[in-house]
Design brief:
Layout lengths: L5 H10 L3 E4 L2 E2 L9 H16 L4 H4 E3 L6 E3 L8 H18 L6 H21 L3 H15 L3 E4 L22 E5 L3 E12 L6 E4 L14 E6 L5 E5 L3 H8 L16 E12 L3 E4 L3 H40 L6 H26 L2 E2 L7 E2 L2 H26 L2 H4 L12 H7 L8 H15 L3 H7 L4 H11 L2 H12 L14
Parallel strand pairs: 1-10, 5-8
Antiparallel strand pairs: 1-2, 3-4, 6-7, 7-11, 8-9, 9-12, 10-11, 13-14
Helix pairs in contact: 1-2, 4-8, 4-9, 5-6, 5-8, 8-9, 8-10, 8-13, 9-10, 10-13, 10-14, 10-15
The chain binds flavin-adenine dinucleotide (FAD).
Flavin-adenine dinucleotide (FAD) binds next to β5, β7 and α14.
């Protein structure tokens, strides 16, 4: 069976020696460091689920290459039903982790490469697809965790790449030889790569002729020579570094979404791991396909999983406070559920209306329009849910004292009395749920959810581009009784 044990991954993570820096210091052991180990734990959970009889129904499916049962995060979507399962996996993972499943971007990158390498080979006779399938088989056989890296620091957005003072602001090939390529540059905001076995690197946007070195995709093992990971750092990381009691942190085991800048300083990649190199025409298609898939999951069902936890925490607080019958609170709960279910419906519909992208590739992608609509809904829905849950939680969501007061003989009695709200629940229970609400409403999730899977303007442009206004105008003309042929205006995208 290609599904491997959580212990096997844990052992590999223990032996990984990437150069990781956080808070100005080298992280010696990613499995022991209070912040980086949350990434390891989230990946461990993905191995646990695949072996669990119930969770495995969502997180496991056969390899199309070998027929062996695999972790879903190493497999391709080969039908609308597979896309539905992919969306369900995103929901399951998010609901159970409350953070990223760090194999998510990599999984969508594997699917994107499967379709795009097929297309490039078909058009140009290149050898990428067979190489890619060898890599995919290796990932599946060993049940490896794969991160995905697309976003780049980039230079001034109003200039072309060639006009930037520093060419490294976008990752590019600096040398080619008979053994492989050497790349320079960086990827930014990359989820969990320092704890994944491999990272798939993709171009960050469309490329023009003349930008061949920037049209490159490949896979690179954890901590390859020349790679440096500079971790995000904020109040939540600082709190985790200081905390001796993880229950202070709202989501004790899995924490916040952890990313890093991944620097490539003359990193060598052998040809067998290079899946695009110079074919500029295909860089934009690759990025578009990745976005198409990722918006259904990261921009859709994943946030439904997060939202379920957020609503659950708000509901518990509602009950602890004796507000079950308060009409406006129930109205707020209904609004949250409605927003959540709208996103879930959009994401599922995107899967069901999926189609084979690059005919003959055997890889299916969700409806682009519905995936983008799903992500756009998420952006506003999640902020709204954060606001509503914050209202229900009250000011204590941000004023809660430390749980350590429950062990402090001088304050314990006061805290137990005044944070118990006279309910049947203990002050400790109420404080833990309130800390969880703090994690969701006063943390990194608002901006994270907004930007993850691409900035909002990108989705708006896609919605404009994909909407069939011609059909809608025709309907309106007919209903209004406007006779004759419509004037031949071309619908243009912005
Ligand atoms: C929690 C989290 C996890 C992530 N994980 C990953 C990951 O694993 N892998 C990965 O590859 N990426 C990841 N990302 C990156 C994510 O996809 C990007 O943050 C997102 O695409 C937005 O890009 P940006 O951050 O560079 O913002 P920007 O592109 O700088 O956007 C900021 C604003 O500038 C505008 N803007 C940008 N360029 C232009 C332009 N040319 N013209 C006009 N307006 C412009 C945008 O519309 C937006 O309003 C993650 C992000 C987050 C927050």
């Amino acid at each position: 069976m290609a599904v491997k044990s959580p212990e096997a991954y844990r052992q590999r993570a223990k032996s990984m020696k990437p150069r990781v820096f956080m808070d100005g210091k080298l992280v010696e052991d990613i499995t022991a460091h209070p912040v980086t180990r949350t990434v390891v734990e989230a990946n461990v959970a993905s191995y646990e689920w695949a072996l669990d009889p119930e969770a495995g129904k969502v997180l496991r499916r056969p390899s199309h290459l070998t027929g062996e049962p695999c972790n879903l995060y190493t497999t391709l979507n080969r039908s609308p039903e597979d896309l539905v399962q992919r969306a369900a996996a995103g929901l399951y993972a998010a609901a159970n982790l409350g953070t990223c499943i760090y194999r998510c971007v990599g999984c969508d990158a594997l699917n994107t490469l499967a379709a795009t390498t097929f297309e490039v080979d078909r058009d140009l006779g290149t050898p990428y697809h067979a190489r890619f399938l060898d890599f995919l088989r290796y990932v599946q056989d060993e049940d490896l965790s794969v991160a995905g890296a697309m976003t780049e620091p980039r230079g001034p957005r109003d200039q072309k790449i060639g006009e930037w003072k520093d060419p490294d602001l976008s990752l590019h090939v600096v040398e080619k030889n008979e053994r492989g390529i050497v790349v320079n540059g960086a990827k930014i905001n990359i989820s969990g790569a320092y704890a994944c076995d491999w990272t798939i690197v993709m171009p960050s946007g469309a490329r023009r002729p003349g930008e061949e070195p920037y049209s490159v995709a490949f896979a690179v093992p954890n901590g390859a020579e020349g790679m440096v990971y500079v971790c995000q750092y904020g109040p939540h990381a600082a709190e985790r570094l200081l905390a001796d009691d993880p229950w202070e942190l709202g989501n004790p085991r899995f924490g916040q979404r952890e990313t890093s800048l991944v620097v490539f300083d003359h990193v060598f990649v052998p040809w067998e791991r290079v899946f695009l190199c110079g074919e500029t025409k295909y860089a934009g298609r690759l990025v578009a396909r990745f976005a198409q898939l990722h918006r259904m999951v990261c921009g859709g069902s994943c946030k439904v999983g997060f939202g379920k936890v957020l609503i659950g925490a708000a509901r518990l607080i509602q009950e602890y406070k004796g507000l079950e019958h308060a009409p406006h609170i129930n109205d707020q709960m209904t609004e949250m559920v409605t927003l959540l279910e709208t996103v879930r419906a959009c994401s599922k519909a995107a899967a069901l209306e999926g189609r084979e992208e690059v005919p003959g590739s055997g890889v299916w992608f969700p409806s682009d329009l519905l995936g983008n609509v799903s992500k756009l809904n998420v952006c506003t829905a999640f902020w709204r849910m954060m606001a509503l849950a914050g209202d229900i939680g009250g000011g204590v969501v941000v004023t809660m004292p430390s749980l350590k007061e429950l062990k402090n003989p001088e304050t314990r009695a006061y805290v137990e009395k005044f944070y118990g709200f006279g309910s049947d629940a203990s002050a400790e229970q109420i404080m833990k749920v309130t800390k969880l609400l703090q994690h969701w409403t006063a943390g990194l999730h608002g901006v994270g959810t907004w930007h993850g899977a691409g900035p909002v303007q990108a989705q708006k442009i896609m919605v404009q581009r994909l909407t069939d206004y011609t059909e809608m105008k025709g309907l309106a003309r007919r209903m209004a009784g406007i006779e004759g042929e419509p004037p031949q205006t071309q619908e243009t995208s912005p």
